Amino acid sequence: MTTRLNPYLSFRDTAGEAMDFYQSVFGGELTRSTFGEFHASEDPAEQDKIMHSALITDNGLSLMASDTPNSMDYTVGTNYSVSLSGEDEAELRGYWDKLSAGGIVTMPLDQAPWGDTFGMCVDKFGVTWLVNIAGQQSS
Q: Which of 42, 52, 58, 117 could bridge across to 133 with cysteines, CB 3.0–4.6 Å?
């Protein structure tokens, strides 16, 4: 798998509905996982919220989205980030190191509940980045 760069949208309780809409616009295959499936929230109100969804079209378009947990800030207009994902650990860690330098690490690059290595940072220009390294195990 090559490294992919794509938009990642955040919603407050409407990610499922939004992604169904985008699938009706662009077509493609839509996958989704809830916070409950990954035991990622203890809040009963968040169990059915979308933790991660991905729409991949036949012509190569990719769009990802999730619901923002109740404990996190949600502001329309800044509810987007850029996702980097792939299997090349050295490449993706290199991007992480450069993007996070001079910025703010909001979630350290570490093993995630779904088994990949995942981190979040805001670069020095205010852009939020998500980095996911598939199939890696933290030491």
A: 117
Query: Is the residue at 138 inside a domain?
Result: no
pLDDT digits (tens, 9 = 90+) for 61-78: 899 999 999 988 888 878
> Any idea what the CATH number is for the domain that residue 14 is in?
3.10.180.10
Q: Under 8 Å CB-to-CB from 110, ≥6 apart: which residues?
A: 117, 118, 119, 138
Task: Provide CB contacts within 8 A for 40, sequence distance 6+.
Answer: 51, 113
Residues found in the chain = 139
Question: Is residue 42 assigned to a domain?
Answer: yes
Instruction: Give whole-number Cα distances, 29 to 5, 35, 102, in Å.
Output: 18, 20, 37
Percentages (nearest 5) of helix, strand, coil residues in the chain: 20, 40, 40
Looking at residue 117, what is its pLDDT?
A: 96
Is 29 part of any domain? yes
